[in-house]
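Supplementary Methods S3. Input chains for the assembly prediction are listed below.
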Amino acid sequence: MSQISNLNKIKGGEFLIKETEAADIFIPEQWDEEQLMIAKTCADFLEAEVYPKLDALDNHEEGLMESLMDKAGELGILGVSVPEEYGGFGKSFNTSMLVAEVIGAGHSFAVAMSAHTGIGTLPILYYGNAEQKAKYVPKLATGEWKAAYCLTEPNSGSDANSGKTKAVLSPDGKHYVINGQKMWITNGGFADIFIVFAKIDDDENLSAFIVERGFGGITMNPEEHKMGIKGSSTRQIFFNDCHVPVENLLSERGNGFKIAVNILNIGRIKLAGAAIGASKAVVDKAVNYSNERIQFKLPISKFGAIRYKIAEMATKIYAVESAMYRAGQNIDDAYDALVADGMEPGKAKLKSTEQFAVECAILKVYGSEALDYVTDEGVQIYGGMGFSAEAPMDRAYRDSRINRIFEGTNEINRLLTVDMMLKRAMKGELNLMGPAQAVAQELMSIPDFNQEDEGLFAYEKRLIKNIKKATLMAAGAAVQKLMMTLGKEQEILMNIADMASLAYVAESALLRTEKLIGIRGEEACATQIDMVRIYLNEAMDQVWLHGKEALNSFAEGDELRMMMMGLKRFTKTEPFNVKDARQRVAKVVIEKNKYPF
Amino acid sequence: MSQISNLNKIKGGEFLIKETEAADIFIPEQWDEEQLMIAKTCADFLEAEVYPKLDALDNHEEGLMESLMDKAGELGILGVSVPEEYGGFGKSFNTSMLVAEVIGAGHSFAVAMSAHTGIGTLPILYYGNAEQKAKYVPKLATGEWKAAYCLTEPNSGSDANSGKTKAVLSPDGKHYVINGQKMWITNGGFADIFIVFAKIDDDENLSAFIVERGFGGITMNPEEHKMGIKGSSTRQIFFNDCHVPVENLLSERGNGFKIAVNILNIGRIKLAGAAIGASKAVVDKAVNYSNERIQFKLPISKFGAIRYKIAEMATKIYAVESAMYRAGQNIDDAYDALVADGMEPGKAKLKSTEQFAVECAILKVYGSEALDYVTDEGVQIYGGMGFSAEAPMDRAYRDSRINRIFEGTNEINRLLTVDMMLKRAMKGELNLMGPAQAVAQELMSIPDFNQEDEGLFAYEKRLIKNIKKATLMAAGAAVQKLMMTLGKEQEILMNIADMASLAYVAESALLRTEKLIGIRGEEACATQIDMVRIYLNEAMDQVWLHGKEALNSFAEGDELRMMMMGLKRFTKTEPFNVKDARQRVAKVVIEKNKYPF
Ligand SMILES: Cc1cc2nc3c(=O)[nH]c(=O)nc-3n(C[C@H](O)[C@H](O)[C@H](O)COP(=O)(O)OP(=O)(O)OC[C@H]3O[C@@H](n4cnc5c(N)ncnc54)[C@H](O)[C@@H]3O)c2cc1C
Ligand SMILES: Cc1cc2nc3c(=O)[nH]c(=O)nc-3n(C[C@H](O)[C@H](O)[C@H](O)COP(=O)(O)OP(=O)(O)OC[C@H]3O[C@@H](n4cnc5c(N)ncnc54)[C@H](O)[C@@H]3O)c2cc1C
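Predicted structure tokens for the full assembly:
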């Protein structure tokens, strides 16, 4: 259910060309009682059940992960976003994001749970027919059955649709007989249900099947040895004449790749949620350590080098968190609107996430990279103890690293960010061309150097507009210049992806803070204001660098000169003492001795 | 022995204010037959003895590390830089750097060996008296005895001089009785000799002792469990009334901290060597993988996103390697000059390294960060396999991470970089003030916009001069403005440290390439020229960002405006298509299927 009364019908990707009002976004300071209670249940569960068992989990203590999943199921944690008719609680998408965030601090458990509730359960919930849903979803919502998702194969990773696993109808027409090999399957070791992607006969596209472990013909290799999330079961799985009843085909023949992609959209934004939860936990520990650890007769939290890190950690978390609940709410709002228009809920859920696939990809990238930054600096703050397996940073660092790889590598997601926007533009769903042309026009005109920014954030809002202009300028020119070959110019696409992403995340942090000021007043939000400015300051620098690199990659001579002048104009900033701002942010975090926002 | 006839008497830190001729630096393309043979011995040793045992090492197979050290000793690898009179081969410093580089690809073995030959052996070699050297060094040079270095304590890490370990003269005056606890001691589990730092009575400063395991009173905790370099023995060591004969005091009472610091200087540049060796090995594997791994019907090495990484990896390695052998040769040259002036060789070795302590700190930071970058992208290139403990990137990634922590954290080394330069300036040993004032003057004058850069690298040399000017401007102004409090402004110091470091590393890459062109001709060096330009392009951007951040941290109003104009001028570049340059570099690396420079 939407928490924003003023339904803003913004579409996915439109952040680049439309203004959003602060009032129209959801901010995590607005969780209601119930949501906070759900969050507390999750946090308590980690504290009581998961944290004492982290070593045992990583050592694959027999049955432990399953029993934790069972307990989570008993508490209702696995069914938060499953509709009530299927034994869940039917909570909003953002509520399920909140659960992902809180549980995200739970290391391997978080991965197991997210695979189960996300890529494991949702294909059935969203693409299953009535019988399939009735049969499987209630058991999944309570954790009685556990699920895994089998897409990747040894020779088919990023290129997911190239899988070789085959499904052939049995002579009697009652079964699909599946043969093939899947790899890297999370929860593989104990799952009861496998969502298996395979090609029927010589189809070009995948189909999806619900496969029960009991169907037979399933064998697996031992647990993979991994850098991190060691407690998460990861298996290579072999299907040898695995007989799947025809009624277990999910959706339609050839629809599998679409299912895979759409389910991954949800997985991506949820991954950002989990990454932010994990990041906060790392900051809590690192700031605490920095307050306790004395060197040169001072707690190391007194040193500028450490305060810098603490402020950067907090700022990145704050910014990505702002974007992620903003997008989550957009998804909720779109869902509500679609259902109000009469769409079937499962379909509406998919459509609403698909609508914001660009934002999901951005969040996947920026969430996982925030976590990598945070854990890396967490290790560094701990010094030698950061390298000790007996202190918490080692596990955090190793567990973090997977997030840039799965749910689509960050390279793939960066490429998708731009690719999806351009495709929508081409289809006329997203009016990028108009605004891009307007920017091109603006380049020709005399710049207005006497801009008066009045009121709080007027200046910052202008900067964000400018990032968007810079992005549109670079993207527009690249499209015009390179046309059909742009798809091969990955470096340029990645530059543009980052420019767009920075616009989105910086704007989200600003809107959140603006809304918060409306509630708490400016004074109470001084630190948040600092964080917005710190983030924006860096974003402007990054936009400049990405823009320069992109433009120099395809333009020359006068055209380049003109666009570079534009880029300079669009990334121009007023002097800002970012050091002092970081010191102020660090001070608050250090005093509270945890991530406090 | 120096390999550069034209002895250039440049002093440490002077790179910031003096021009260096390409002819005056050593480049690794100039290794002589003997050096190449030594390198090959080391590489063969890794191939034959270490690589097949990496898992066994990480599992602490009983006696394995010691036996590998023994074998390395038999091959002479441990005694390369030990004088012949003590059973070594008396090779130059840069030759020992080469050994550090090649062995650097040897994971835990590299750490064990570097602790033994470096911080374990050198204190005796450089600070021992004749008897001490005669007694210990020959056994260390062959590996018959193995050494560890005990400086760190639970409450004394970065603040190394604050250790609590005590040494008290025994009533009969024959022994120092040592009590205390040391931590994180590499090779602790099997070392025969411990260099132990402790305070005699209530001294303010540490003293250093040569402690034999057999002296008794030494106990240790089990092996530490660590994120990486798991094969390296790391122990907590307790000294309980450990009786050390008075003749085993190293150097003089109270001289321990100086010993520790000077030995660490050498350790720092050697760490860069090891990091570069490890980095090259990672590139070899990653590029090979990228050539073999097919996705979307193409080897992934065809994708711009991957080529970007490969080019960046190679460029960083090339640049840091250039700087590290340049500094190594400076140390060799300074040593030769001091010995020619009649200084005792041990003392001369120390003085020559101390002289280049700034460069050693820079290299420690940039070497370890290059390796972290390279391993991180190595993981990413491997995709899911990057996260597998059965593929090589997992170990590389985990082993890499220690390098930013030990031998002085990178924070401490960045701070030291500037601190040492300013102290030298204060003492009149380094004329920073003159050049800084000249830059300040230049700011007032009308810039000469019609600079004609003639000849290869004329433009690039101007850019490097400009980085130095920007650094001097920021440093000079910070000193003037903040005076005595600058030491507390760590953020500013770190900005300046990076600006200076970028000048040094970029210049080194350029000089190396210039010299190489003189030998091979321009055409044969096209890729190296590209790498210089790629590195410099990024360096200019970074200098701009660091400079801006620094200046905005302490200046305001007109002063800030003027300096920002200067910074803009100093970081101004011509358009450069860095994407195409990276593509060209990647092409070469991919074709050679390894790091080929
Ligand atoms: C611990 C773990 C758990 C996992 N859990 C599951 C699971 O439950 N179910 C499941 O189906 N899968 C799972 N995976 C698989 C995961 O989704 C894949 O590893 C991921 O999609 C990347 O595929 P890959 O490993 O084949 O890498 P590749 O696709 O081979 O990629 C290698 C490198 O090439 C790059 N690359 C590839 N194609 C392109 C391109 N066109 N352009 C630019 N760069 C490109 C990638 O970004 C990457 O850097 C898991 C993996 C791991 C490691
Ligand atoms: C695997 C391993 C092997 C090692 N081997 C040896 C060995 O053989 N012999 C030995 O003696 N030691 C050894 N060490 C110890 C190593 O040198 C120390 O870990 C290192 O010096 C950092 O000290 P610390 O761990 O106490 O961190 P701390 O000094 O507590 O540092 C914690 C954090 O605070 C920062 N910090 C500290 N002081 C300041 C300051 N003044 N300003 C700004 N930031 C500051 C640091 O940069 C770091 O980020 C080893 C350590 C490890 C992990």
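The beta strands of chain A are 147-150, 166-169, 175-186, 193-200, 207-212, 218-220, 234-245, 249-250, 294-295, 298-299. Residues 432-592 of chain A form a domain with the Butyryl-CoA Dehydrogenase, subunit A; domain 3 fold (CATH 1.20.140.10).
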